[in-house]
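Running co-folding for adenosine-5'-triphosphate.
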Amino acid sequence: MMLAGAEIVNDGSVSYKNEAEGNVAISLPHPEVQEANTSRKLNSPLRETVDMHFSNITCTVSLGFNKGHKQILHGVHGRFRPRQLIAIMGPSGAGKSTLLDILSGYRISRVGGAVFINGRGRIMKNFKKMSCYIQQDDRLQGLLTVGENMALAADLKLSTDKDKYEKGEVIEEILTNLGLYEHINTRGAQLSGGQRKRLSIALELISNPLIMFLDEPTTGLDSSSCSQVVQLCRTLAHQGRTIVCTVHQPSASLFAMFDQVYILAAGQCLYQGTTKNLVPYLEQAGVPCPIYHNPADYVIELACGEYGDDKIQILTSKAENGRSLDFFENPQTIPTMEALRKQYPLSILREQDTGPGMEETSQSNQRSVLIRRGFLKAKRDSTMTHLRLIVNVVVGIMLGMLFIDAGNEGSRVLENYNLLFAILMHHMMSPMMLTILTFPSEMSILSKEHFNRWYSLGSYYISITIVDLPISIVSCLIFSVIVYTMSAQPLDIVRFCMFFAISLYTVLVAQSFGLMIGAAFNVVNGTFLGPTLSVPMMMFAGFGVTLRDLPSYLYWGSYVSYLRYGLEGFIGAIYGLERPILDCNQAPYCHYKHPRQFLTEVSMSPDMFWWDVLALTVFVLVLRVAAFLLLKWKLNAVR
Ligand SMILES: Nc1ncnc2c1ncn2[C@@H]1O[C@H](COP(=O)(O)OP(=O)(O)OP(=O)(O)O)[C@@H](O)[C@H]1O
């Protein structure tokens, strides 16, 4: 089967002309030639293969409180043979993605049935080491180039015994084969849809998986890119891998590129077998495909019930809900489970058992690679870094101008108090909202990479904490210097350090709070919840209503409001440490000339500064741990 626009060139590789991108964009080794080419790791046939068998798979979902359950998959069976490119097809809502999620091990809750790998019950830990799952939305690091994405993935997925040249060889080979080498310096965000899809595949190919699951790899691509991606999958499959994709209504030529199809209708299997056997199968079932009709279109129409529900019943019983292997190529040669167990003795499992860790490299390696990646991204991130710095400079100048010279003047103490609260608001809102708005997109990448065993959640969490710290310190320091000097706060290094420490702590608490919300909710809910939950914090900060005037039954609120400790800390830094009498140049009478009087009036004690620091430290630690636990829960809950 040849692609339109494809030709065999002298070295035996299939050269594919990409109309969208001009000339030859990808050069895939011809399957037969590449099987003889043992010098290149990616191209050489795989020693081990994966024969997947699944039996009586069911899946139910809860429709919400008191609304009961819905069964998505109704006891489907099936067999996915190695060296095959398999398409799971069916109308929208048939359960394709659900089946793929289950077979890849991504979905684990409310799932019934059994999955067997090479004749034995699937051991998830071993299975995950030999498989990968590429979800529909390309979850790539858009700020990093193709080369950087690959290099960092190689550092995470290949053994640390390999030096950078060996890793470089693997990367070069994959990128060349996938036609991405020319784009090695292009950032992920600037790649076309087809290139992004190929990069997603390239990243997973680094660990050379034996079985790959791809959810709708052709969705959103033009026909030329679709053919490229499917041809690539076909090539990879013929090297020995088992490649399973869900596809939406493929064209006739695209359909013919798959070796095997698995057709679902309303959670039941209508057909399982080779693409070539589909037409004879339909004929035998008494629903022949009209001449000149794309069999893929026709079978989807059947599965949608356009020709009556009785046809679905006929096909489901003929396919025995996926149990029948009659329409495979040479069905009599398909090994039984027992034969497979003999072919893959238990000792293979022992070899695959590489210790307790799920990831390929040590935790310390994961952390150092993720920190490197984090700093690279931060350097280029216009929102999280550049905009954050700019906002701190601009807001600092604006507040400084608004409250210019208010710090030393006895007649402007209340103004200065307003300034301190405004600073607190700034330190609360900007890091919190930035995290709430940006973390959910980071979360989808985390979910993919963590599921595909690139790194542990602990390593990821430590790395984001470390990467963010210098950015928080620098932006907070710039802001503090600007606002502190412009508003003429006391020129005393100790007071400035105290002021800066409280500012930084407030930023860290707000950010951890944002992380908690970002981990648990999507952007819309998070954007609503973040500011809404912050309102009680402001109420209990002791600003509008002093702590003394808070009703006793609401006093507990002041203990759980981190803004209270922030405000008290600021007051301690600016008006504590036995601050001498203030200037009184701008008014005939200065009520708060004596800082002690002001402190009594707002019922705040400067002696509490270190308690405030301690309380804020506890907040940072508790919220960080809570955000980690929420993240962990969320990663499992979506499955
Ligand atoms: N968590 C859920 N709650 C309720 N219904 C769900 C849930 N997950 C899936 N479904 C339903 O299960 C059915 C199968 O979903 P699935 O995403 O597997 O279908 P699909 O065949 O992949 O569809 P599409 O091609 O449109 O992506 C759909 O009707 C969907 O609405």
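Result summary
DSSP finds 23 helices and 13 strands in the chain.
The first strand starts at residue 6 and ends at 8.
Job closed.
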